Amino acid sequence: MGFDDYSKACRLGKKDYQARMMRGEKPTLAVLDDIMPDSRYYEVPLGLVQVPIDRIVGTKTMGRSSSFAGNFMPILNDGSEFAAKWIRLSDSQKEEGIRDPIKAYEYMNYFYVEEGNKRVSVMKYFGAVSIPGKVTRIVPPRTDEKENKIYYEFMDFYQASSVNYIWFSQEGSFTKLQKVVGKKPGEEWTDDDRLKFSDLYTRFSSEYEARGGGKLSITKGDAFLAFITLYGYDEMDAKTTSELSKLIAKSWEEFELLQEEGDIDLKMKPSTEKKPLLSMLLPVSAPKMKAAFIYEKTPGTSAWTYAHELGRLYLEQTFPDEVSTVAYENGTEENVEGLIADAIRSGCNLIFTTTPPFVQASVKAAIANPEVRILNCSLNTSHRYIRTYYSRMHEAKFLMGAIAGAMAENNQLTYIADYPIFGSIANINAFALGAKMINPRAKVHLVWSSMKELDMEKVVRETASTCISGRDMVIPEEASRFFGIYHVQGEHSRNLAMPLYHWGKFYEQLIRTIMDGTWKYDDNASTTKAINYWWGMSAGVIDVVCSRHLPIGTRRLVELLKKTIMSGEFNPFAGILYSQDGLVQKDPGRVMLPEEIMTMDWLAENVIGAIPKKEELKEQAEPVIKQQGVTKELN
Prior knowledge:
Blueprint: H1 2-22, E1 30-31, H2 32-35, E2 42-52, E3 56-59, H3 81-95, E4 102-107, E5 110-115, H4 117-125, E6 130-139, H5 146-161, H6 173-180, H7 191-210, H8 220-231, H9 233-237, H10 241-250, H11 252-257, E7 264-267, E8 289-294, H12 303-318, E9 323-328, H13 336-345, E10 350-353, H14 359-368, E11 373-377, E12 387-391, H15 393-407, E13 412-417, H16 424-438, E14 443-448, H17 456-463, E15 467-469, E16 485-489, E17 492-501, H18 503-515, E18 530-535, E19 542-546, H19 552-567, E20 577-579, E21 582-585, H20 594-598, E22 607-608, H21 622-628
Parallel strand pairs: 1-3, 3-5, 4-6, 7-18, 8-9, 8-10, 10-11, 11-12, 12-18, 13-14, 13-15, 14-22
Antiparallel strand pairs: 2-6, 4-5, 15-16, 16-17, 17-19, 20-21
């Protein structure tokens, strides 16, 4: 039997050898001595550990490397002394199991064998998961290379967990995994923690690979982390293997999406696909739609929710016979799944979840109910089963900054922001750039309303600003003049302008794409990219409303700037740009890419203030920044 096993192993080895030769790769085992870093590395003994078989990729020295193909299968003839020893080990593995530890070096979370190459070969042939080994880690010097950064994150994770069989292709993943499994940064795992994790990861890996996961360019760790982040670690641990298998199958497009370099297909304006004549009239046969709007707060207490509620009412007025709507208020991360489920039970075939923290519940519901269209209002969110939408508010904020710059007597402006999330930094910078364009001496004092222990009135007084950018709009239960751009003179204030989210226009145009059949044009069969609608002034979903207190000349300037932005002739983030730390963009003819605008993590040079860290923010900021935080410290 051992001879037969060796013959089969040899065939596997020679097949792999030839395949690597055809690809122009080295056909035998990698040699650590050939790829070692420079002399600045140092060694750390790890002691006796379970070495993951699939992470063993080569030998320490040249010695036996040519006896094996790159997959560790033997390639020497079956009459050799090498073959006889391999066969004896094979028989031993089948009779009692190989227990003697190998000796190996670990470098960048790959293992290179110094003693025990044939043992590894036999164990790989029989499909073993791990082998005991006395391991020495080789630690390279820190660099700015992505793999090096991931490795240093792995070492921190390993120190807490002693888990060495999971790997990621993206920075920050080990930190995220520690959090998803319910551990604080650096918190040590118990033996029970490791057993629980190993069981779930092994079951997931088996089902994932059985469905062809090995053909994807991501790691198993990437897929596993996305899976438990979406469905919950403890919840998935409680699932049977059959239940896991079904969820993995349903979630496959999410795994495929992880492969995409640019994983979001941004739709910057409504579809321009050729439509039937008179397409503005809905077809007589258009199906009746029932749309649910799920809010985090109430229209009476939240300007954001109020704006969406106005959009919902606009939708009902625009399509009184074709569309009916229902609103759910006071949603939370804990109850939103139930709200979505209730909307689906009540017959809703279109659901808008209007805040970023609801994105995971939206994806889970979309996977379970593929016949229901679900959209989440968030920016730079990458999920294939739902579509996301947002608006380019920075276009309006640029105009607001221009107004403030023109109206500030002492060059001092204040900008009150809420959360440091995607989009909000672009809003701040656009405001600052607009102010500077009109008034080169304008300074923008940045105040975060979500900061702990903040005395807002005191901070604003200390800035000595006469022009302030507050909340975007007034809400019914808090009638106040302190919204939009307002001018302060002593105890009196007056509004000058306010930005406008016209969500009704967005919802109307989206409904028309569904009704006239062009919704499907946004899906491209050749890609698995997520779809994000990011419309602006040109689509009518963003505007600036000027008050009668604004001088006629300033109003004319606003209209002129608005037209150039709508036509695409002007972009607030074009040309040479400076941050607080220096030059950001040096090409006077370049326009920042949409993705760069979305993910800004710097502040314009005329902004006085900083982006706060997570620990500086109030507790209610946690769900928002967890999903949409602009920096690693906020995630």
